Amino acid sequence: MLSFANRVLSRHSGRRLLSSVTQEIESIASRRVLNEKIRNLAIVAHVDHGKTTLVDKLLQASIDPTTVPSEQQGEGERLMDSGDLEKERGITITSKPTRCLFEDHVVNIVDTPGHADFAGEVDRILSMVDGVCLVVDGGEGVMSQTKYVVERAIEAGLKPIVLLNKLDREGGLAMVESGEVEVRLIIKILSNVFSCSLKTHPPHTPQSELFDLFCSLGASDEQLEYPTYYASAKGGWVTSDLSEAVDIVKGAKPGADVGMDNLLKGFLEHIGPPTGPALINDNEPFSMAATMVGFDQFLGRTVTGKVSSGSAKIADRSMFLPRDLELVNPDKKLLLPQAISGVFIYEGVTRTPLESGIADKGDIVTLTGVPDGIKVGDTVTLESNPVADAIMTPPLAPPTLSMDFGANDGPLAGKEGTIVQASRIRARLQGEVDNNVTLSIGASEESTDKSIVFARGELQLGILIEQMRREGYEMTISPPKIVFSEDEQGNVMEPFEEVTVDVDSEYSGAVMNMLTGDRKALMMEMREDDGKVRMKFEMPTRALLGFGPEAATTTRGERRGEERGARSEATSQSKYQN
């Protein structure tokens, strides 16, 4: 009798266990996000046009304070600029993803740097998004880095959304508003006559400059039909109606219908979901390009990217295919299997475990416990169901500057830092190169104890040096050198750049003479407005070395800015001199 009761109890316990497992599986499945419910986009712009502030406001608009803990909401301004150097300098150095939940959709947003020296960050981020939000300062209009990011987005076939920001600043609204009323009337008349929808803008406004830029870069008809929003990210309002924006800037109180929700709705409407079937297919081979690689002292090696196919979960054994697979491993054998220890996302500014625990196609996630040898650009896949080939990533522009790094062998060696060995300095540089595809390292011709670091600009090298100094490294560095190249005919080529300088009108002559003299700059444009002068030049990269401090001295600190055009733009258009 007791034996029979035990068998009955065991049978009932088995049913309860099976029911519990079934409920858990159904619960996990309900938390997985369908492909059609995902939107991936990057916030791109010229430096200091308001990208990071915009992301802050979008996060605040999407976070429900009743369900999200306060420590995940973040406080203050520039929440995404979490690094010490980013906070001190007020610039974005590294790209950072975050996640917004809005109207039953997942909106993955990536904040990108605006400075030309970190344009490589933009290059790799564009490979994992499906659209871009182009932020333009309404008072400045199209700048050099604006052209660069637009060109890259068009080449990648991404759908753009334009946001004219900082309209509440002096001069911002005037440029955007000028001539708009008359043009609207003309558009209405012509549309009625020809029974079609026309899109045009008055001359000499940010709208007309942007439209001309898209046309000159060969944008498709679909890309040219981009929506335009008017906003003040700092003020927390955005609208697609210019008249409404004008009223707000002139003193009208923003209504509840002009919040950041307008832009989030625009993302859902104008940026499509990741390509591919909407249904989840667990039998598809898993693949994800490593867009960002890092290290956590508790979780080990981390990799962030967009899942291109299939799905992966905790305990799956991950492997990777190098981006230069044909050179590293001609037989295409998968390398270094290791069990995935975690699947994470960024909610607000905090990294949290993904609720479903499964990285599905189309989503942007962070995997932990991946092989230590993985680098940016490599392809993550699974040992049980691997992909045949590595994911193709977009080519990067070549470096333009180099600098020698070596151990300090002088009489004061060891006075300023604790890490002085050449081998450890080289290992630190190699680790930086593994995580940053815009940097490369080589052996120095002067000494075996020195390494050459190739980069895209003075600021990028300066940031690297300062980071290493704060980590306790002591080293010697050489002056920056220009990286020359040769064309197919063997001619030595030199990179050129586009330079924009804003100064008070009284100093414009001095700055012009400084650039067009020994620096051999060619003036392309000059515009004066309300005592300020903006000048655009084309000049060799070597002529820019040391220009910033010299210009600041000449103008007594009144130089408003020296903005450099993206070097990859100069490379792609072959703007070189023999």
Molecular structure report:
This protein is an alpha+beta fold and 578 residues long. The chain has four domains: 37-270, Rossmann fold; 287-382, Translation factors (Elongation Factor Tu (Ef-tu), domain 3), CATH 2.40.30.10; 401-482, 2-Layer Sandwich (Alpha-Beta Plaits); 485-577, Alpha-Beta Plaits (2-Layer Sandwich). Helix content is 31%, strand content 27%. The strands form five sheets. Strands 8, 9, 10, 12, 13, 14, 15, 17 and 18 form a nine-stranded antiparallel beta sheet that branches. A hairpin with a 2-residue loop joins strand 14 and strand 15 (350-353). It is globular and about 70 Å long.
User: What percentage of amino acids are in beta strands?
Assistant: 25-35%
Classify the helix fraction into a percent range: 25-40%
CATH architecture of the largest domain: 3-Layer(aba) Sandwich
What is the total number of structural domains?
Answer: 4
- CATH fold description of the largest domain: Rossmann fold
The number of helical runs is: 18
Q: What's the overall geometry?
A: globular
Q: Could you name the ranges where pLDDT drops below 50 across 5 or more consecutive residues?
A: 1-18, 21-26, 66-74, 179-200, 565-578
The profile of the biggest β sheet is:
9 strands, antiparallel
**CATH C-level of the largest domain:** Alpha Beta
Oligomer: single chain
